[in-house]
Amino acid sequence: MYKIAVIGGDGTGPEVVKEGLKVLKSVSSVFDIQFQFDDFDYGGDRYLKTGVVISDEEVDNLRKYDAIYLGAIGHPDVKPGILETGILLKLRFVLDQYINLRPIKLYPNVETPLANKKPEDIDFVVVRENTEDLYCGVGGFLRKGTKDEVATQEMIATRMGVERCVRYAFEYTKKRNRRRKLTLCAKTNVLTYAHDLWWRVFNEVAGEYPDVETDYAHVDATTMWMVKNPEWFDVIVTTNMFGDIITDLGAMIQGGMGIAAGGNINPNGVSMFEPIGGSAPKYTGKDVINPIAAILAGGMMLETLGEDAAAKAVEDASIAVISKMKSMSAGKMGYSTSQVGDMVAEGIKK
Ligand code: IPM
Ligand code: MN
Question: What is the pLDDT of residues 331-350, one digit of tens each?
Fold first, then answer.
């Protein structure tokens, strides 16, 4: 029996999570896997009512779950940063989900803005470090509000943090067993301290994986190759900030935010799975948002729990439904949010 904490969150988050749960319930009956789903109301609405984002005790309580299934965090009436740092980043940091795993995969029948690129050309995974870098909140203001104001925000790279991420990426590349190629994406020509550390650790760990081919690309060049020659990539390992940026580009080339899923992974603890598209407030309650990303995130959750066959069934059923959809964009799918969820749930088979 898997205990899953469900955080629908803000905007369309609860709607897409509802469809994901439909699919997981179907998985439960077809594969005889038992789930217990517990709902939590963390998000913008609760914050506006109570002033609480998520307390230390509430985060601690999530440790007793096998995984967390998250919709989206971000509310139009809350100043940017409060919910993001107070909930999403707090969960990632406190639960030490040090990997953000983001597959970039173009499924058949999905439109990509890249001319002449086919599913076989766009199939790679970004391993984004998820607990360090510019995301640590190290910095501050001096003389705030005056004309002599100074603001700093430090980029943190620790030996431990970089090494565990790089090791995970090598292991993942080996286990994925496709082209067995791992590309480090950094900016060693400018970030001569933090990324020198990344470069040294990457090459050191590479020595333990003679069967994994290594490659390097500066982040600016990475964005260029992702558009021009995405087929060059198998697995990319990168820093938190660069990973944030390149995975939005990745989501676009794989067909949009409606289809991009991700996992915040602590290999020794509680991991959290989410569609990466955000709360899309303008579509809230309209039954038009694409739930496929949330459904695929549920599939990633199953894979991380070790339920490989069930995970594959979720992906296969999603692919079958995607092939019938007119578009991956909200309101243009040819089906409603709940219809897409129903169709995937019905398509789950052994
Ligand atoms: C993401 C998001 C978050 C991030 C925001 C909402 C804090 O953009 O998951 O990519 O920057 O990591
Ligand atoms: Mn992002």
Answer: 999 999 999 999 999 999 99
Residue 43 and residue 176 in one domain: no
- Tell me, in angstroms, the distance from the centre of ligand 2 to residue 225's CA: 19
Residue 98 CA to residue 131 CA, distance in Å, equals 5
Q: Say what the pLDDT of residue 297 is.
A: 98
Given 200, 228, 254, the domain boundary residue is 254
Residue of 84, 130, 240 with the most ligand 1 atoms within 8 Å of its CB, for mutation: 84
Q: In this structure, are 63 and 7 located in the same domain?
A: yes
Identify the residue whose C-alpha is closest to ligand 1 atom 5: 84
Q: What whole-number distance in Å separates Cα of residue 69 and Cα of residue 12?
A: 14
State the pTM of this model. Answer: 0.97
DSSP state for residue 178 in the 8-state scheme: S
Q: Tell me which residues of the chain have a pLDDT lower than 50.
A: none
**Quick one: 213 and 274 in the same domain?**
no
pLDDT on residue 281: 95
Question: Does residue 314 contact residue 330 with C-beta atoms inside 8 Å?
Answer: no
So what's the pLDDT on residue 259?
96
Shortest-distance atom of ligand 1 to CA 89: 7
Residue 192 belongs to a domain: yes
Q: Does 193 share its domain with 302?
A: no
For residue 147, report the distance from its CA to the centre of ligand 1, in Å.
31
Query: How far is it, in rounded angstroms, from Cα 296 to Cα 102?
Result: 11
Query: Which of 254, 275, 299 is the C-terminal boundary of a domain?
Result: 254
What is the reported pLDDT for 91?
98
Residue 38 lies inside a defined structural domain of this protein: yes
Ligand 1 residue neighbourhood (C-beta within 6 Å): 84, 88-89, 244, 276
122 with 223, same domain: the answer is yes
User: Which is nearest to 70 in space by CA: 94, 88, 90, 97?
Assistant: 88
Q: What is the CATH number of the domain that holds 343?
A: 3.40.718.10
Average pLDDT of every residue of the chain:
97
31 CA to centre of ligand 1 in angstroms: 33
CA-wise closest residue to 71 among 99, 93, 43: 43
Tokens of 55: 């307390």
- Could you report the per-residue pLDDT of 34-54, keeping only the tens digit for each? 999 999 999 999 999 999 999
107 part of a folded domain = no
